[in-house]
Amino acid sequence: MLDYKKVLATMPQIGILQWIGLRPARRETLQSVSSAEVNTKNGLTEDRYSSDGKRMITLIQEEHLKTVGSILGKSGPVDPLMTRRNLVVSGINLLALKGATFSVGKEVILEYTSPCHPCTRMEEYFGPGGLNAMRGHGGICVRVLEGGTINVGDEVKMIA
Questions:
Q1: What pLDDT is attached to residue 97?
Q2: Contacts of 28 (CB under 8 A, 6+ apart)
Q3: Domains defined for the chain, CATH in brackets
Q4: Can you tell me the distance from the alpha carbon of 8 to that of 3, in angstroms, rounded to the nearest whole number?
Q5: What does the H/E/C string look like for 30-96?
Q6: Model confidence at 68, in pLDDT bands (50, 70, 90)?
Q7: CA-CA distances (angstroms) from residue 103 to 82, 126, 132?
């Protein structure tokens, strides 16, 4: 019989960083970029929402953008700019990284700290029902353990 804790601590899937967004100022639209600098002091360099705590960077699964779009009655995924998350990742279950550290690219090491619950701004961006459409699909918050450069196309892998 398989050991449940051992199985939870193993993730053979490797994700791909699909999108990076930086907030230039409060309440402004995120700017889509192809690469970004990550630092251990406050998260993403040049992102207005810099933090030294548990919410240094936010991530959402690309697969959830399609789900939220479907819940809202759209024919395709919602635009990642509207979710107010920093990174969009595909091919790996972000919630399965709970309690784990993981790498993005060759240099950056992140630590899962909490789920990233949606806020009422989702009603502004998506219209009535936007917040409830995002519930359970808001992604995760992380702390930066090791900084460096990340690029769209980088691998996302569980470390421990």
A1: 96
A2: 48
A3: 13-158 (2.40.33.20)
A4: 9
A5: CEEECEEEEECCCEECCCCCCCCCCCCEEEEEHHHHHHHHHHCCCCCCCCHHHHCCCEEEECCCHHH
A6: very high
A7: 25, 31, 30
